[in-house]
């Protein structure tokens, strides 16, 4: 049976997929303003996309903003993410600073989860995961392909590698060129969940073709989905209110009597 991850009061991997909303402000003021709005929304998790932050390369500024973000969001889990340029993010970053940033923020106690790009290099990934776990911070290992959808076996292999590296949650996002690609992603998700998963998995097919994958997680095995409060942080994200409504409608209509 698939295990769950409990972050504060949010159980990831059980029931309706949890909804995460990204904070993509460029200044501390914008970040905290977005956080206040998210804190009173239907979101379950807030992701701070720190690659948007204009002072991200000043580590003390990042720590200061993380502390204030924690105060604003109270008991809502915070996922800390620097999405690199090569995986669809806003900025380039050296491996050295990427490692330092994630390790030092994990040690602050201000965030609950960190996103680590799984193919940064095994040594770097394992080092970050070790420090995160020493500080009771969960790790989402991730991989994003904005050009194509790998075959089913490759998607499963990538997710299994994330588990082998020690991640608590494994995440992959791919771009479909055809509707068959969406089915490939869903098939891979179901097979991963039923045969190999030792923890929650997050999968999505991006863009307009892949929207169905963002709402079907309860049935195929994706434990968390991303919604947009204002500006989407990835192609194909639905608005938060609409996403919440669809997730609950599917859940309620498919329950056994």
Can you walk through the features of this model?
The chain has 257 residues and is of the alpha/beta class. It is built from nine helices and eleven strands. Strand 3, helix 1 (28-39) and strand 4 (45-49) form a beta-alpha-beta unit. Helix 5 packs across helix 6. It is globular.
Please give a handful of descriptors for the protein shown:
two-stranded antiparallel ribbon; 257 residues; 11 strands
Write the layout of secondary structure elements.
Elements (H helix, E strand, L loop, with lengths): L4 E3 L2 E3 L5 E6 L4 H12 L5 E5 L9 H15 L4 E4 L13 H12 L6 E5 L4 H13 L3 E8 L6 H14 L3 E6 L4 H18 L4 E5 L5 H5 L1 H4 L3 E5 L9 E2 H14 L4
Parallel strand pairs: 3-4, 3-10, 4-5, 5-6, 6-7, 7-8, 8-9, 10-11
Antiparallel strand pairs: 1-2
Summarize the structure.
The protein is an alpha/beta fold and 257 residues long.
Strand content: 15-25%
SS-based class = alpha/beta
Q: Helical percent range?
A: 40-55%
Going across the biggest sheet, name each strand in turn.
9-8-7-6-5-4-3-10-11
